[in-house]
Amino acid sequence: MMWYQTKASEILGIQYPVLQGPFGGKLSSVELVSTVSNTGGLGGYGAYTLNPQEIVEVDKQIKAATSKPYNINLWVSDTDALDGTVSDGQFKQAQQLFKPYFDELGIDLPEKPAPFKTRFENQVEVILHQRPPVFSFTFGTPSADILEQCRRLGIVTVGAATTLDEAVVLENAGVDLIIASGFEAGGHRPSFLASAEASTIGTFVLLQLIKEKVKTPVIAAGGIANGKGVAAALALGAAAAQIGTAFLATDESNATAIHKQMLFSNAAKYTTLSRAFTGRLGRGITSRIAADLTHKENSFLPFPLQTQFMSHLQKAAIEQEKWDMILFWGGQVAPILKYTKAAELMKSIIEETAAYFDHLKA
Ligand SMILES: Cc1cc2nc3c(=O)[nH]c(=O)nc-3n(C[C@H](O)[C@H](O)[C@H](O)COP(=O)(O)O)c2cc1C
What we know:
Elements: H1 7-12, E1 18-20, H2 30-38, E2 43-46, H3 52-65, E3 70-75, H4 88-105, H5 120-130, E4 134-138, H6 144-153, E5 156-161, H7 164-173, E6 177-181, E7 187-188, H8 203-213, E8 218-221, H9 227-235, E9 240-243, H10 245-248, H11 257-263, E10 271-274, E11 282-285, H12 288-292, H13 305-319, E12 328-329, H14 342-361
Parallel strand pairs: 1-9, 2-3, 3-4, 4-5, 5-6, 6-8, 8-9
Antiparallel strand pairs: 7-11, 10-11, 11-12
Helix pairs in contact: 2-3, 3-5, 9-14
The structure holds flavin mononucleotide.
Flavin mononucleotide (FMN) is lined by residues 21-24, 27, 46, 48, 73, 136, 138, 160, 181, 184-187, 221-224, 242-245, 248, 329, 331, 333.
């Protein structure tokens, strides 16, 4: 058996057990997904902010750009706001806490938005209709009915766990593959049982805990950016590795030029888990706002109202080039990134992993 012939490669129908992690918030691109899938890995598109029609369009574009398997990703739970809103008092509190930053940028505080309506049910209808080869999800488990329909339609299902308890829930629900999402990772912590703060486990510990108790093949995610990392994950029993930050930094991703520049800069040595920008815990390059507002989480708005609130501030900060007020998503591994072309990154990952296993045999 070659190193790349794992349970995950077999189930996903791909050559190499390397997944490009999906990025929500419009940071994914069809070009990145198809580049990774066309070079033998599994490209992934984060679609949780898209409406059903947009997901149909994206799916058609990916199908036109690759004949290989790919993944579309949604968030099962996409709001923490009761009835989609907060009380006027709660909103005022957030306004007061963030007022100095809006003042600094010379912009008005946003008004309270209309109640947020969950989108998952309508989005998942599109998945069942368009049938991407792989459907991955975070923040929970879809209903038994949805999982059964995926099975019937031949859509491979992939759930994300941040603790052993979550992996057990996903296994019992019958998902095909489980992502062990370590807290080194860039982006949101997709915890769905205990709080994200109480679920901060490193990738390689989480992977080993899950391997002890769970039979479903596991994909390691968080802190992996090259072939040595993939080899280490496989050595610890992973059936594949999912790589996010290293692909986010490539030309093909939909991140802005300044975001990519930041990921390759000295600033990327310092990352923080914070709820300040979206209301859910996520890792990005340390910003002044995240640092200032540690322990003020009680005054933040619940997800995604905090995202909507902060989007006004983010827009103005970008226009005024106040980089220390912007959240640049990224994981702890960013300082070792080397590649700006996704195909070169893939090639290097595969060659380096192969070299490691060849070396073992020699
Ligand atoms: C900007 C950004 C957005 C992300 N959005 C999602 C998402 O919507 N859904 C998801 O399952 N994972 C998401 N992730 C997680 C990645 O798919 C991947 O698991 C993670 O980045 C791996 O860790 P690494 O960044 O250390 O490579 C996101 C990661 C980043 C950096």
